[in-house]
Structure formats: structure tokens, C-alpha cells
Amino acid sequence: MDKQYYLESIKLLWKGAVRKVELSLLKLVPSKLAKWVLQRRGMVVGITSNRNFYETTVPVCVKSLIESGFPPQQIYFFIGGYDARYEKVDIGFGVNAYKCPHNSIDFTALVSIIELELTEKYWFLVHDTVEFEKQFYDLIAKALFFRKKKVYSGPSMNIGCYDESAIERASRELLTIKNSSKAWGVKTEDRYIRHLPPICTNVLELGVSDVYGSGVLRHVEHYKRAGLIKNKANKNIAENFITDV
């Protein structure tokens, strides 16, 4: 047996064992304690959006996040596609929102966090085409109780925690990711969070739906352990890339 193959097999078995133990321990952690710990760590949710459709996605994304119990003052909404400079704006719901002088597709929030010098916060980044379930806050608090994670063991769509190493690397590559294309974003998916363990190891396909009533069909995916639903624009097929709602 090849030595490298043997070592990789041991590594996979070890990761699986650690995950099983962690899941067993998490069942013993009360939700109130998990949320208290997350509050102490100061986790904030950063949401990437665009000037062309944020008014459509805010009532779904931001509203559902707040309805899960997540504090609005710990939500940051970054709207890409503007010129000039960063500008703090009011989009309702009592959240922090910024017009951003770049359009970096999946990385708009990440680029803005670096340029606005907000890197000291405990960031969990998502897209505005995510819908949060009622139990999201409880589930995410438990899921991140022991360590930071990305949302899925497969492609995570750049959704997950961004730790110090992720932000440091992104800072070094800022000129590359700023104003990057959708195709580049898909090609480099999870570039900064690939090293993190996953919250979910499977995803439930809920079919195709015109989620926003705009005539654009999206693939709806349910990440149950994370308490979120992703209204996905494509299935990673280049000719099907959608950058509208």
C-alpha cells in the first residue's frame, strides 16, 4: 500500500472519529450556554449583496436571520457595485449596512471587511441569497461551540467562518479578489476556508423554485445542521452562471 494513501486514510478516519465525538458532546450543551458563549466571542454575520437586487433579498435574508433571534446589531450587510467610497446606509431592521465601491461577487463582504478594518471581529460570512431557519441561531451557536467551521464538507460557496489565517491570506491577495468575476469566484470556491471542518456533511436538494418571484429559477438547498437554506444560482456549470435574483 502506498505510504501517502495510508497516511491519508488514517487522517480521514481520525477526522471522522473527532466529528462523532464532537457531535455527541454537543448534544449535552444547552442552547442558552452555546449562545452565551457565541455572544462572548462576538460573532457577527457578514452578508454579501449587490446594488441591483439587495432590495429584493433583504426582506428574505435579513428578516429571517433576525427572526431566528440573532441580534440585528451583529449583522453587517455589504452592498457591492457602487463608486466613490464606502458609505454607511440604512436598509432597515437595525442592521449595519454599507454601500461598497467595488463589486467582488462572493467576496464583496470579505474585501469590505478588510478595507474597513473590521478584521478583529468573529466573522461568519454568507450570501444574501441565503434564508435562515427559525432555529438558525440555536444551531449555529452549538455548531461553533468548540471551533470555527465552514458550512459544508463539499463546496461551501465560500460560506462559513473566516478565521485569522483566512483574513490574512485574503489581505495579501486583495488586489486579486477585489472586483473579481463570478467565474473566478466559482473556480476558487472556498479558497480561504477550505482548511476548516464542516458543519454539514450532507445537503438536501429541495428542487428548483422562483424564490423571489422574478422569473429566475434557483436551486434550493437545505443545510439542516446549519439551519440555513441556500437559493443557489447555478450548479457550478459556467454557462448557467446567474448574477441576478
What does this structure look like?
Helix 2 crosses helix 5 (136-143). It is built from 8 helices and 12 strands. 34% of the residues lie in helices and 23% in strands. The protein is an alpha/beta fold and 245 residues long. Strands 3-4-2-1-5-8 form a 6-stranded mixed beta sheet, sandwiched between helices. A 4-stranded antiparallel beta sheet has the order 6-12-11-10. Strands 7-9 form a two-stranded parallel ribbon. The chain has one domain. The longest helix is centred in the first third of the chain and has 24 residues, at 3-26. It has helices at 3-26, 31-41, 54-67, 108-115, 136-143, 164-172, 174-177, 182-187; strands at 43-50, 75-80, 87-89, 96-99, 122-127, 130-132, 150-152, 160-162, 198-200, 204-209, 218-223, 228-232.
For the sheet with most strands, the description reads: 6 strands, mixed
Number of strands: 12
Q: What is the first-to-last residue Cα distance?
A: 50 Å
What percent of the residues sit in helical stretches (DSSP H or I)?
Answer: 25-40%
Q: Note the beta-strand portion.
A: 15-25%
Estimated structural class = alpha/beta
Summed up, the helix count is: 8
- The Cα radius of gyration reads 18 Å
Please mark out the parts with pLDDT under 50 across 5 or more consecutive residues, or reply none. Answer: 237-242
The general outline is globular
Query: Mean of residue pLDDT?
Result: 88
| Topology pattern, helix = H, strand = E | HHEHEEEHEEHEEHHHEEEE
State the domain count: 1
Which strand order do you get reading across the main beta sheet?
A: 3-4-2-1-5-8
